[in-house]
Fold:
Amino acid sequence: MSLKPREPLPESRSTQDLVVEMVDDLAAALVNARIYRPDHPRVIESARSTARFVRELTPVEGERGLRLSVANDLLVHRGHPLVGASIAASRLIGAITARGGGGLEIDDDASNDDVARLLGGLAARPNEGEDWQAFNTQLANLGTRSVRMLPPFVVGVRGTALGGRTTIVTPVKFYQSCIDVLQEVTVSICHGGRIEFADVQSHAEAVLRRLEGDEGPLMNLARQDQYDAFTFGHSVRVAVLAMNFARTLTSDHELLIRIGTAALLHDCGKSLVPFEILHSRKQLSAEEKREMSKHPSYGAEILLDHDAADPLTIAAAFGHHRSCDGKGYPNTLQEHHNLLVTEIVKICDVYEALTAARPYKRPMSPVRAYRVMMSMGEHLDRKLLRRFIENNGIFPIGQLVLLTTGERARVIAQTNRIVFPRVKLETDPHGSPLLDPDALTIDLSLPQTHPHRGIVEAITDLAPTVVKPRAEPDLTTFPLPSV
Structure:
């Protein structure tokens, strides 16, 4: 079986976009290498794609090709930390750091075979005592001299700006651990093995502890705009959103963990969807959409084969694309009503899908996503949707915003006024980054304290979304669902 070559990338794609897609390819290749033979078409296609992308990179300051460094559990490209891409690339980062390396370098003349050998080496467990230099020697002995592992990368003090931008403080290692456990689930399913529910549940419990401690850093994850291989990041973001929302509905600790586990595994059926469909960089055809729509049934079947599977997890996997009125998919001959847990996961699933970046679309602003969700009729539970909007906010926690003063700030908490959250300044009015000790926390719902500050627009890495400044939303144009 040979895979079709990818569609040509639009001319508007930036170097950063290309690098993020390459990281995605590398992450996907390492997972595939654990499932398939080294000469399998799915592994070979990732190598071809990566080599092609490297050739498309614009040379900068004499640098020809791709150079990725590793620092503080993050991949860094030309001084810019790739936060979202790094979260999904824990295996790649781990393969480098296990050998004491500081990154990777792929020349623009690297062949497909060169990249394939690099991937094979990274996917293999390092031999005892094997360091980055020994790794490079092995590649050279195979005749591969256009790819190499870099020596350790040294960075300055944590919290300083990289490339003129303030580093987003997130518990990256924890996020990567969540991605890793979902990768293990996929590999196990593809090998006909068993799901280790205890590992998934322990990560759901860890998410809950972090939300109960300081929800800000964790909710930053839900604002990462990168797409990722196998949608692992999507499942983690849905779990974070679902557990944070569910905390406003119940204080039952055990139930919250069950909800988190259900959210983490809601898309486990995608493990059986053909890779070329799941990992497509373009809109799916009608036939491909039909195959993709089978993943809820696949997920339920996989989970039903496990005696230890929680009924709530099975229900969420099966029903997260079914409507309250019985429409959607999978179709059933009997009347089927979704459980409350399924409705929570479904709302968060739709919201994440709308507000996240995909290869074929830009991310929506939260406001636009809410409008789309409210127009979906009976597909979503409208009472729950209202509660979700009120809890999540017009400017969700983790959202970067531009203030009327010219300062940039990040939302850290909601207030009783839906468009006036609490924020923490990240830059001064001239755009210069502020270090944490100098940052100022502001409650925008207290105009008497900060009369000259309001939100002008919500900012993403891809495009700003303009929002009417310093005014409550007009409910004639933004009608919340009635309770």
In short: The first helix runs from residue 15 to 35. The chain has a mean pLDDT of 79.
